[in-house]
Design brief:
The chain is built from 16 helices and 32 strands. It is α/β, with parallel strands linked by helices and 658 residues long. It has three domains: 334 residues, Glycosidases (TIM Barrel, Alpha-Beta Barrel); 209 residues, Class I glutamine amidotransferase (GATase) domain (Rossmann fold); 96 residues, Sandwich (Immunoglobulin-like), CATH 2.60.40.
C-alpha cells in the first residue's frame, strides 16, 4: 500500500500581532522536533505569513514581524529541525487576511456596496479583508515567490482564506465593466468574485511551477467543497477543515467528505485541539473528542488527519496539547494498516446542489440527510444532479432538487437502466417527469390541505409504528397511490388549520378524519415522499420520520450493504483494500452532547454491549478481527451476510474481515 499524504499532521497556526515583542525567543529546535516525534506527528504546516500580514523567516521585506529578532530564523530552524526527524513541512501563507497590507494600502481592502470596508470595523479587533482584484494580488505573489525560492523544494504550500469575496472597489468595478458585468447586480458581483479566485489560483500555481520547477501540494483553503468539480484542476489534494467545537458541528465533516472523496484526489480532514476554535490559548479538547474527530476522518476514507494548534509567540509548543494530540495519533498510527489504501464502499447516491456554500447552517436538509442516513446505516455519497449514477443501486433525490430539466431526464434514464430512485421531497416530486412519479407508485399529487396534518401508520407495514396519529409539523403533499403501490401511512386532516380566528389549544389542531391520501408510496423500482423528509428530520428530529424512511428503503434495497442492531448514535462505514484483499468496517460509538448553547462536547466513548452488525459479502470470510489489537470476533455467515457480535468500550472499533 502507498499513501501520498502524511497520515498524522499538525496545522500550526501562528497569527501573531505586531505588539508581541519577543517572537521566537524561546524556540529550541531539538525540543520542538522531539515533542512532535513523541506525539507521532509526521507532517506539520508551518507559517511563513500570518493573518496580521507578518513574515517569520529571514527576509529584507518590511513585512517581517517587528518582534522577530534579526538573529532568530524561526521558519528556517523549524523546517531544518523537522527534516532531521523525517517530518514533512508544508508552508502556510494567508491570502485575504493581511492587516499589514490593509493598514498600508486601505484602497486594497474589499468594499461593500454601501461603501464600507469588508471585515472588521475601525475599532473592532478583527480582520480586514483584502480585495484580490487590487494590486494586493501582485503583492501576495511576490511573497509566495520569495518563499518558494527560499525554501524549495517545499513539501507543500497552504494558502488560507480564499473564499469568493464580492467587492465594489475601483479595481473590481473596472474588471466587471471590461467583462460586461454590472456591479449593481448581486449575481454579477458573485460571478466576478468566483472568476477572481480562479484567476489567482491559476496565477499562483503557474508562479510556483515557474520558480519551484514543479507544482507541490498546493491547497487553497476556505473554498466551498461543492466547487471541486471545476476547481479540482488546480489541486493535487483536498483538505477538509472541520472543527466541530468551532461552529462546524459533528455533522459538517461527514456531510462534506461524502462529496469531496469522489474527485479522485487524496484528502485529509482537519480538526483542532482547542476547546472552542482557533487561537483558543489554554483551551483543551477532551481526549475522547479528539480521538473521535480524527477517527471519523479515516473512517470516512481520508488518507490522513490533521490537528490544528497555535504556537506560543515565544516559539514553544504547548506540552498539554501535545500529550493529548499524541494519545489521539497513537490510535491513528495503530490502525494505519487498515485505512491506508482503503476505498469507501457505497451503494446509495444522494443528489446535492453544487450551489451550496462553504458553511452549512445547523439543521435543515443537508444535516438532516447525513444524520438520518447514518442512523439507518446507509452507505452513501453526495453527488451532483447530473453525476454518473451507474455504480449506485439507489439514488435519492432530496428536497430542493429540480427534476424538470436535464436532471430529471438523467434520473429517468438511470431508472430505466435498472437503478432504484427515491423522490424525497415536494420539489423533486412536483418537478419529476410523469413516468418517474408513476414508477414510484404515485398516480396523482394534491397540493391543498392543512399545513400540519397527521400520519396514521399501518402497523403491519411499519415496524414499531405509533398506534396514534403523528403530526407532520411542516406539512406534506397529498399523494394518490397507484394501484398495487406500497403505502405505509394515511394522511389524517386536523379539524382546521390553526389561525388567528380559529384555533384549539397551544399548537396544531387535533386530528379529525382520515383521507384517501398518503404521504409516501413505493414500488420495487422507486418510492416517493410527499414532504421534505430530511429538512423535517434535521429540524424536528422525529423518530417516526426515520422509521418511515427505513420502511421505504426496505422496499427498494431489501439486501442493503449493512444492517444491524446498534444504538442510533453509532456511525458505521465500510471500505475495502486490495492489497491484501479485505473489507474494513469502522464502528464509531460517541454521543456528542449539547453542553452549552453553541457547543457540542464529547467527554467519553459510549460503550457497546452485545452489538450486532451484518455486512453483505459474496463469500464466507476466513476471519473477523477487532483492531487495534487483533482480537478475534465470533461471526456467522448466512444468506450472503457475515454477522458479528461483540462488545467494546474503545469508541472506535475497526472490524477487519478477511
Amino acid at each position: 500500500m502507498s499513501n501520498p499524504l502524511p497520515t498524522r499532521q499538525i496545522h500550526l497556526d501562528f497569527h501573531t500581532g505586531p505588539h508581541i515583542p519577543d517572537v521566537g525567543v524561546e524556540f529550541n529546535a531539538t525540543d520542538f522536533a522531539a515533542a512532535l516525534v513523541e506525539a507521532r506527528v509526521n507532517s506539520i504546516t508551518l507559517f511563513a505569513k500570518c493573518h496580521h500580514g507578518h513574515l517569520y523567516y529571514d527576509t529584507d521585506r518590511p513585512e517581517r514581524h517587528p518582534g522577530l529578532s534579526k538573529n532568530v530564523h524561526l521558519l528556517e530552524d523549524q523546517i531544518e529541525a523537522c527534516k532531521r526527524r523525517g517530518i514533512r513541512t508544508p508552508i502556510y501563507l494567508s491570502v485575504m487576511c493581511d492587516e499589514y497590507a490593509a493598514d498600508l494600502h486601505p484602497d486594497w481592502i474589499a468594499r461593500n456596496v454601501d461603501g464600507t470596508n469588508v471585515g472588521a470595523k475601525p475599532l473592532d479587533p478583527g480582520w480586514q479583508i483584502m480585495d484580490m482584484s487590487s494590486p494586493y494580488a501582485d503583492f501576495l505573489e511576490e511573497q509566495i515567490v520569495e518563499v518558494v525560492n527560499k525554501f524549495k523544494p517545499v513539501d507543500g504550500i497552504f494558502l488560507d482564506m480564499c473564499w469568493d469575496q464580492p467587492t465594489v472597489s475601483k479595481w473590481a468595478i473596472d474588471v466587471m465593466r471590461k467583462e460586461g458585468l454590472n456591479p449593481e447586480v448581486d449575481a454579477d458581483r458573485a460571478t466576478h468574485a468566483r472568476r477572481t479566485v480562479h484567476r489567482y489560483m491559476e496565477r499562483y500555481n503557474n508562479a510556483i511551477i515557474k520558480h519551484h520547477g514543479s507544482l507541490p501540494r498546493v491547497w487553497y483553503n476556505s473554498r466551498p467543497k461543492t466547487n471541486l468539480a471545476e476547481e479540482v484542476k488546480y489541486l493535487k489534494h483536498i483538505e477538509i477543515e472541520a472543527l466541530p467545537s468551532g461552529g462546524w458541528g459533528y455533522t459538517y465533516f461527514p456531510l462534506n467528505v461524502r462529496w469531496a472523496r469522489n474527485f479522485g484526489l487524496p484528502f485529509i480532514g482537519m480538526t483542532a485541539r482547542f476547546h472552542k476554535s482557533w487561537s483558543d490559548f489554554g483551551g483543551y479538547k477532551p481526549d475522547a473528542a479528539l480521538k473521535y474527530e480524527v477517527s471519523q476522518m479515516v473512517a470516512q476514507g481520508a488518507d490522513g488527519c490533521s490537528i490544528g494548534d497555535q504556537l506560543h509567540p515565544r516559539g514553544t509548543l504547548d506540552a498539554e496539547a501535545y500529550r493529548r494530540i499524541g494519545r489521539a495519533f497513537r490510535h491513528i498510527e495503530a490502525i494505519e494498516p487498515f485505512f491506508v489504501g482503503a476505498k469507501p464502499v457505497t451503494e446509495v447516491a444522494i443528489l446535492r446542489d453544487p450551489a451550496a456554500g462553504y458553511h452549512i447552517q445547523p439543521g435543515g436538509t443537508l444535516e438532516g440527510s447525513v444524520r438520518l442516513l447514518q442512523q439507518l446505516l446507509v452507505q452513501f455519497d453526495f453527488v451532483a444532479p447530473t453525476a454518473d449514477l451507474s455504480k449506485y443501486a439507489l439514488t435519492i433525490v432530496p428536497e430542493g432538487i429540480d427534476l424538470s430539466g436535464a436532471a430529471g431526464a438523467h434520473v429517468l434514464k438511470y431508472l430505466h437502466a435498472g437503478g432504484k430512485v427515491l423522490l424525497a421531497g415536494a420539489k423533486p416530486l412536483q418537478s419529476a417527469p410523469a413516468d418517474l412519479r408513476l414508477a414510484a407508485g404515485v398516480s396523482d399529487v394534491v397540493e391543498t390541505g392543512a399545513r400540519t396534518p397527521f400520519f396514521r401508520y399501518n402497523p403491519k407495514l411499519v415496524p414499531e409504528a405509533e398506534v396514534s396519529d403523528v403530526v407532520s409539523y411542516d406539512g406534506t403533499l397529498r399523494l394518490v397511490p397507484a394501484p398495487n403501490a406500497f403505502a405505509p401511512a394515511t394522511i389524517v386532516e386536523p379539524y382546521f388549520q390553526r389561525s388567528w380566528d380559529k384555533f384549539c389549544g397551544h399548537n396544531q389542531s387535533p386530528p379529525a378524519a382520515p383521507t384517501p391520501y398518503v404521504p409516501a408510496t413505493a414500488t420495487p423500482r422507486a418510492a416517493a415522499l410527499g414532504f421534505d423528509v430530511f429538512a423535517a428530520y434535521g429540524t424536528h428530529g422525529q423518530t417516526h420520520v426515520r422509521r418511515l424512511l427505513q420502511t421505504l428503503l426496505d422496499q427498494l434495497l431489501p439486501n442493503p450493504l449493512t444492517r444491524g442492531q446498534l444504538p442510533s448514535h453509532v456511525e458505521v462505514t465500510v471500505s475495502r483494500q486490495t492489497t491484501p484483499v479485505r473489507t474494513i468496517v469502522h464502528v464509531l460509538s460517541y454521543a456528542p452532547q449539547r453542553r452549552t448553547p453553541t457547543l457540542d462536547l464529547v467527554e467519553e466513548a459510549t460503550p457497546l454491549v452485545g452489538a450486532t452488525l451484518s455486512v453483505r459479502l459474496a463469500t464466507p470470510p476466513k476471519s473477523v478481527t477487532q483492531q487495534p489489537g487483533g482480537a478475534r470476533v465470533e461471526f456467522k455467515y448466512n444468506d450472503g451476510y457475515v454477522t458479528a457480535e461483540w462488545s467494546s468500550t474503545t469508541g472506535h472499533d475497526v472490524l477487519v474481515i478477511e
